[in-house]
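Before going further, learn to read the protein records used in this course. The integers have meaning only within a learned vocabulary of local backbone shapes. To see the layout at work, look at the sequence and tokens printed below.
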Amino acid sequence: MSAGSTNRSVPPVLLIVFNRIDTVKRTLGVIAQAAPRRIFVAADGPRPHVSGEAEKCREVRDYILSHVNWDCEIRTRFLDRNAGCRRAVSGAVGWFFSEVEEGIVLEDDCLPGADFFRYAAAALSFYRDDPRIMHINGSAFARPEIRPFCAYFYRYAHVWGWASWRRAWEHYDVDLKNFDPHRIFDVFPDDPKQAARWNEICENVLADKPGFDTWDFQWTYTVMDCGGWCLSPVRNLITNIGTQQSTHDMDIVSDAMGQTAYSLPEKLVFPGERHPAAEKIEEDVFRRFYAVPPLSKRLVNRGSKLFRR
């Protein structure tokens, strides 16, 4: 592809940024290589009590406006005041899907691998009219051998690089107004531990407990509540290049950051039904990321945080 040209096969892209110029430079550089013909950029406003953050936010915005230099349409949603993770990100995604029927969502620390855009574009097209599929994962935390398929149906919506449709996002409610604890037990009829933990997570979000000013648990609940599936690639396609912070209450997430992005087969074969291996993969991912870790693990994590300060 020649410099400055657009790639009409790449769906619209939403890039969500804040105050990190280093990650923005890397992620925008990869997006520029893909050269989507429509790019949307959303930025939360600076926190008034954080010294120097207004300048950092301005630097990020100025860099993006000067480096989206291929032939494309660019739209921006730059907030003047800080809305926080929950409102800023969910509002940005809602804005994006009010403008497009389908597209890719990337936060600035989610670096796409070489095959992510090809995979996302093909999956969006293949499942466009299939209401069972509501979310397309770019990141994957298992490497199953599910031949000849390049992906499988899965319950968990991972948001380190993803794609979806307006038809799916229209069910989303950031405030979980229709949360029903009994619904999750229908999702996991044979695994009450997973159901109970997800109810606990949603109740923590509703109570706005520390570490739960977020938007993504609500999206995973939405998919589950609608009886939908996420499509997960058999190989990870996203590298998280951010700095580990207090990510909800799951310190173990740090283990997955920085993992390699791989390639998929040249021919992408998508499944029509759920593979039996998917349930075991979900159980493993649940234990790794979502289950409450043993007390000994929590104490080690807490001690590690103290030494990192």
About this structure: Residues 245-252, 294-309 have pLDDT under 50 and may be disordered. The chain has two domains: 1-108, 112-309.
